[in-house]
User: Which sequence fits this backbone?
């Protein structure tokens, strides 16, 4: 598997208003820009309503059929009655990566106490990493800045490249 293949990504925005075209997808645009600047090839972009079944189906398709290596979602991680992104992600992943989600929340907590109410999830389905980000552009940047340094290693491990080289 080539490094380029390991660096494919999809960005999925979860927003009722965005899916109806009533709101610009600034968070998804920013996530895609940051990932592109970090060397990822963003091969898919989607905007879905906050519907658990639709989210779950798309996440499974991206992991199993499209075989992207990284799926980043934005939105739907709060406590609103329609916020179901974490539940949909948990329906899909095989293994949770709680440390990644905790690290993002810890960084956000330095800036706002409301970070305590963010329920983002990170985990793996097969060799694909899924990461939930909050819906605000500011939080997208903060959270991606936290996890970007570990993404190459994480994707290598998920791809089965488990040999540790001394540097």
Assistant:
């Amino acid at each position: 598997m080539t490094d380029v293949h390991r660096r494919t990504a999809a960005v999925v925005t979860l927003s009722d208003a965005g899916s109806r075209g009533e709101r610009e997808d600034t968070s998804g645009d920013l996530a895609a820009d940051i990932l592109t600047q970090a060397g990822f090839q963003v091969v898919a972009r989607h905007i879905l309503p906050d519907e658990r079944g639709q989210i779950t189906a798309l996440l499974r398709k991206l992991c199993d059929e499209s075989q992207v290596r990284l799926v980043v979602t934005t939105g739907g991680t709060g406590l609103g009655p329609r916020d179901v992104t974490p539940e949909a992600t948990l329906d899909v992943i095989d293994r949770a990566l709680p440390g990644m989600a905790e690290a993002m929340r810890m960084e956000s907590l330095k800036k706002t106490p409301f970070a305590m109410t963010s329920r983002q999830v990170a985990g793996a389905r097969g060799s694909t990493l899924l990461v939930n980000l909050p819906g605000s552009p500011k939080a997208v940047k903060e959270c991606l800045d936290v996890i970007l340094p570990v993404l190459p290693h994480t994707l290598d491990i998920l791809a089965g490249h488990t040999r540790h080289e001394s540097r």
